[in-house]
Amino acid sequence: MEISVTPDVFKLAQVFTISRGSRTEAKVLTVRVRDGEYQGWGECVPYARYGETLESVTDEIMGLPGDVTREGLYDLLPAGAARNAVDCALWDLEAKRAGKRVWELAGLAAPKPEITAYTLSLAEPDEMQAQAVKNAYRPLLKIKLGTPDDMPRLEAVRAGAPNSRIIVDANEGWSAEVYTDLAPHLVRLGVGLVEQPLPAGEDDALIGMDRPVPVCADESCHDRTSLPKLRGKYDVVNIKLDKTGGLTEALRLREAAIAEGYEVMTGCMVGSSLAMAPAVLVAQGSVVTDLDGPLLLAEDRDAPLLFDEKGVHPPSSDLWG
């Protein structure tokens, strides 16, 4: 089997800003696994927050043996971007060999469209209100926040999109005091969920804290080994393939999290339709689906995912799986 890695860049439709910085393009790695006449592929987004770079992830992938299997992969690479791209490429390869869809191989029901959030990036209140007005027709908006001065932003977005369901992502940007002050206003403004309000290393402060709006673990939850540390802090876990290290672990994390009483959100990094395709399988039945990466791009893969009023549709076999 031959494994190759290609860096790819996708321009964003507009500047995308979160509490940790801004970007104008999505830098991804495309992994291809070839076995004779069959080839599978997958995509990952190395994330500096987790100590990953394009170069370090490429080195991890290229260090794998040519006879690697999906199960064997879990003994060779940790959870993260490198394992994600290879795992998804191997799933795609297996599906092509078998002439079946990945969900059939995984014993899952055929996936259906899922309503996805659309993300409004962090900006000044008037700009965020303008973004909200432009996207007020969307049923679910996600607001990027994470500063001590977010109340005007919340008010502005709600004024701009009075009928949309709203969720908030602080990207670890609040302190316990800021979150406590904002919580009643989240309720007043009809916010349905708040994602990672506190830094992952400081989230013990959530224990015993009133949570009038469900709180979701993102940076605090990577794979199944994260679950014991979330008890008493979170109500929802955000499953992202670049954190779990692939579809295989994402499905296992979903099952384990639900068994422990958590609700599930399915999220993404900013990547192309190829990165979102496997996550559509994980998103089935999620309390929140946030797979809007391709909607934020100015360009995408061939045979991209379909987004319409029903949400994000499962991938065609021309794309993945």
Automatic annotation (TrEMBL):
The keyword Isomerase applies. Keywords: Isomerase, Magnesium, Metal-binding. The keyword Manganese does not apply. InterPro entries: DgoD-like, Dipeptide_epimerase, Enolase-like_C_sf, Enolase-like_N, Enolase_C-like, Mandelate_racemase_C, Mandelate_racemase_N_dom. It holds the Pfam family MR_MLE_C. Residues 125-216 form the Mandelate racemase/muconate lactonizing enzyme C-terminal domain. Its cofactor is Mg(2+). SMART domains: MR_MLE. Its EC number is 5.1.1.-. NCBIfam families: racemase_DgcA (NF042940). Belongs to the mandelate racemase/muconate lactonizing enzyme family. This is Dipeptide epimerase.
